[in-house]
Each structure stands twice: as structure tokens, then as C-alpha cells.
Amino acid sequence: MKLSLAIVAFALAIPSATYAQDSTAVSKGEYPNTFSSGSANVSPFTNKSKRFNDWAISAGVGVPLLQSADLTSIKNGNGKNLFGYSAYVSIDKAITHAFGINLQYDRGETRQGWFNTKNAAPDAYAVAARTQYDAISILGDINFSNLLRRVDNHSPYRWALHGYAGIGTIAYRAYQKDINGQRLMTEIKPFQLGSLFMQAGAGLKFKVNRRIDIEGRLMYVVTGDEEFDGGGDAYSAINRRSEQVSDNFFNATLGVSLKLGKHESHVMWHDPLQEIYYKLDVLANKNQDIEVCKKGDADNDGVCDDWDRQLDTPAGARVDGAGVALDTDLDGVIDLYDKCVTVPGPVENNGCPVATTGPVVETETKLEGIEFDLNSDRILPSNTPILNNAVNYINSSNGSYNVIGATDTRGTDAYNQKLSERRANNVKNYLIKNGVQTGKLQAVGKGEKDLKYPECEPATKCPEWKNRANRRVYFEAK
Q1: Percent over 90 (pLDDT), the chain
Q2: Which residues, 6+ apart, have CB-to-CB distance to 202 below 8 Å?
Q3: Does the residue 286 lie in any domain?
Q4: Of 278, 307, 322, which closes a domain?
Q5: Residue at 10 is within a domain
Q6: DSSP assignment letter at 438
Q7: Residue 238 and residue 230: Cα distance in Å, rounded?
Q8: Structural domain boundaries enclosing 425
Q9: Are residues 266 and 54 in contact, defined by beta-carbon separation less than 8 angstroms?
Q10: pLDDT in the model for residue 212
């Protein structure tokens, strides 16, 4: 049963190879440095011209912690964790940029129980154990960073997430210690049916240079043996949990890989998106015409007529994905002709706002006011000079004024009514705070019923500068 489960798990852990090596070469005839993704003048991999290293030797050391057993390493009866030691060496073969196979040898010792076996037993009930093991396994290595890579960001590519899973044979000696001393409890020889085990985990690699990688791994080892912990057979006093069928442990390691070969780069660090650039570069180098648009591109804006929503884009204008000329500030003047690209303004002023130095007297009884941001009643700092001039003007007159707030047509009637009242009250309070007599002012909210540009109903029919002009507070003599 253990063998069949192990074989199934191993089969699931090693996917079939679906990618082939490809490679890069710069125009100088040299091999690329794949510290960064993206490339120029790339050429495909062939068996006759192999341009990547695909072998490596790895070694590392770590700490095993028995986690699932009758005697464990984690928080035992003495409330302490018992740390063992481990080491591994492996020969690594990369099959593709995303998959490889490793032949690995592990050696280590776990320590578990109520006290460290280096110490004397504290009492007659305390039991400790240690297990010395040697293991040989075949691991499938999946480079998730390459497998899931979808964007070529032209940035340094020096970190990679790997996943490991595999099967092997494990041999061990388990020693138990109590107040009477230490004795050998179980010994398992390698390459036997009962010595099969599985391990799986993940590792994070960092590319130091073209030859050296360092990696931190966390592996989970399933021994398939309930006597691995040194507790004795299933019917001993130690093995009180009869349902326990496998003693398992975590193994955290830190290791280094030496990449072998004469080439500049290792295939596991190769950017798979470079093949895309190879195809584009080859076509460009051969001066081949690529038929991209079946119906052509009438305005030559880079968007095929099949998808172009504006077939008469002016020459030189930047467009969006639908072929519409860009208008960054949404003022109705495209960026090509807009003298103030980021600030809305009327068409007749080439998209630039009309400068206002103070309230303009339209008649003897009406003053022009200020504008507001969308959904906001905050007085903008740029409007304070206008309001300060309004203070002087109102104080110098003998009349009283309505401070009238208005909005554009976005939002509900009820919301816009309240918003216009808040705008009017904010301006009124500012004027009073700066010296205008309270009796000269009355705040009035008219919501969206008092549009400066009535044609902006709905707001989508107008450029943004007209909608902004509708969001205003102005003064009217009573």
C-alpha cells in the first residue's frame, strides 16, 4: 500500500515536459547575460547549437523537526523544541526553463521526546529518542517563476520560486533513551519495500552570478514508517496513538548551487518570453511584410479600421486602443492641438483656461463667481484671490447679495441640491469671516436647475470644461 501511494504521488509531482529550450544571442555574436529579461536578436534553441547550461551540483545544511509522531521535536513535555541536523547534496538536470529532475542524497539526525538525548533523563517517566537517517530520492523541480511568467518587464530576474516533490528510499537507526540508558530500537536498511518515503516542499532561489545560486528550502518528509521516531512498535507503551501510521518531519535547509557548463546562462534562468522577441526580430531582420490589418488603417494611427472608432484621426495625434485621439484633460480639445494638455479650457482658447483675476461685473447687479471640483464643496486655493476681491467689492457697495450654489447634472436631484447648498454656505462663511457683514449675504442652493451651459444635460454631451463651469458659486444682487 505504501509503495502504490508513493508511486501515485510521484507521478502527480512530475509533470510532462511541454516546453523546449530556446536561446538568445546578441548581434555581436556573443551569448546574452540573462540577469535581465527581454532581449534583442534572439535565435531558437536547436540540438546542434545548445546555448544554455542545464547541469548543476547543489549542497546544503539544515534543521529537521519531527512533527507528526508519538515522540516529536516540537514543544514536547519539557516545553522545548529539539533541533537535529541535516545535510544534502544533489545532481540537478534542467529539462526545460520550467522543469528539472534532481538526484538527491540526504543525511541527518532528528531528536525527539521529553529531553535531549545528550542529557540525562530527568525522571523515570521521561523518554527521548534520536534517529539517524540516510536517504536517496529523485525529485521533480518546477520553476514556478518561469512557468507562470506572463509579462516581460525588462527588469533584473534574480529571484525564482521552485517547487519540489519526489520519492526515494530511506535507511535509519532509531535510538531510545530513558532513565535506564540508551538502546537501539529500530533499524531499517535501504532499498527495501518498507524503506520507501516521499518528500515535497518549496524553495526560493537567488542568482548571485552566472555560476552560483543560493536557496532556502522547506521540505516535508513522509517516512511511511510509524517506528521512525524511536518509539518502538505499534503496541509499545510509547506508541499510544494506534491510528499513527507515518512519522513525518519538516526539514528547513539553506544551500548553494554550482551551475556547470561553458555557456553564459543556465536554462532555468532563461526568460521564456524571449522567444516572442525572437520571432519579431527575425521578421524584422528579413524585412518581411506582416499583414496585420485586413481592411487597412485609413488614418495610419496604428489601429486597424476593423476596430478604429475614429477613422479620420489627424496625423501625429496619439490615440487610445480604440483609435480615438487622446484628450487628457477632457476639455474637447485633443492633445495634438491643446496648448494646456493637463488643464481644461475652452476650444476658442486652444484648450487653456481663461485667466480670471477677480469677480467680473456682468451687469450692475451680478458678479461672476468661482468653480468647484466634482462632488466637492471645498474652496480651492486658486479661488481665494477672487473671493478676496469680492469682499472688497461687496463692502464697497450698499446692496445685499445672494450667494448662489449650483452643480452639473451628474448625481441625483436630491444630492445635487444639498451639494449646491453646501457650496453656497462655504462661500458665504468665507466672505463673512473675511469682513463682509452677515446681513448683506444670503446662501441659496439651486442644485442642477441653474446650468451655465444648459446643453450639458446629460453631462456626457459636453467637454469637461463646460461641466466644470456648471459647478459654481456666483453672486447676484437682491
Answers
A1: 34
A2: 161, 162, 163, 164, 217, 218
A3: no
A4: 278
A5: yes
A6: G
A7: 9
A8: 358-477
A9: yes
A10: 95
Q: How far is CA 343 from CA 317, 328, 350, 449, 461, in A?
A: 18, 9, 11, 26, 19
For the chain, percent of residues with pLDDT exceeding 70: 76
Backbone torsions φ then ψ of 386, nearest 5 degrees: -65, -45
DSSP track, 91-134: EEEESSSSEEEEEEEEEEEEEEESS-TTSPPSSTT--EEEEEEE
As beta bridge partners, residue 92 has 56, 102
| Residues paired with 141 in a beta bridge | 100, 164
Give the residues across from 130 on adjacent strands.
111, 175
**Residues facing 143 on adjacent strands:** 162
Looking at the DSSP assignment, which residues form a beta bridge with residue 174? 131, 186
* Partners of 87 in beta bridges: 61, 107
Same domain, 397 and 268: no
Better pLDDT: 37 or 176: 176
Q: What is the C-alpha separation between 293 and 271, in angstroms, rounded? A: 30
Residues 310 and 304: beta-carbon distance below 8 Å: no
How far is residue 348 CA from its own chain's centroid?
46
For the chain, the domain total comes to 2
Whether the Cβ atoms of residue 237 and residue 70 lie closer than 8 Å to each other: no
Whether residue 423 contacts residue 387, with contact meaning beta carbons closer than 8 Å, is answered with no
Count other Cβ atoms within 10 Å, centred on residue 304. 15
Tell me the residue type at 388: N
419: left (phi over 0), alpha (psi -120 to 50) or beta: alpha
What number of CA atoms fall less than 13 Å from residue 7's CA on the CB side? 5
Average pLDDT over residues 85-91: 98
| Alpha carbon distances (Å) from 208 to 42, 52, 78, 88, 115 | 24, 17, 42, 20, 40
Output phi, psi for 233, to 5 deg: -75, 175
Q: How far apart are CA 120 and CA 118, in angstroms?
A: 7
The domain boundary residue, chosen from 228, 245, 278:
278
The three grid cell numbers given for residue 387, joined into one nine-digit string = 473671493
Q: In whole angstroms, what is the distance from residue 239 CA to residue 69 CA?
A: 9
Residue written as grid cell 540573462? 34
Q: Which of 232, 155, 165, 123 is nearest to 14 (CA)?
A: 165
Q: Are residues 82 and 219 in the same domain?
A: yes
Residue 298 belongs to some domain of the structure: no
Cis peptide before 463 (omega within 30 of 0): no
The cell numbers describing 104, all together, are 538527491
Question: In the numeric block, which cell numbers belong to residue 87?
Answer: 545535510
pLDDT at position 17:
36
CA 314/CA 296 separation, integer angstroms: 16
**Comparing C-alpha atoms, which of 275, 279, 296 is closest to residue 288?**
279
The CA distance from 110 to 231, in Å, is 13
CATH number where 466 lies: 3.30.1330.60
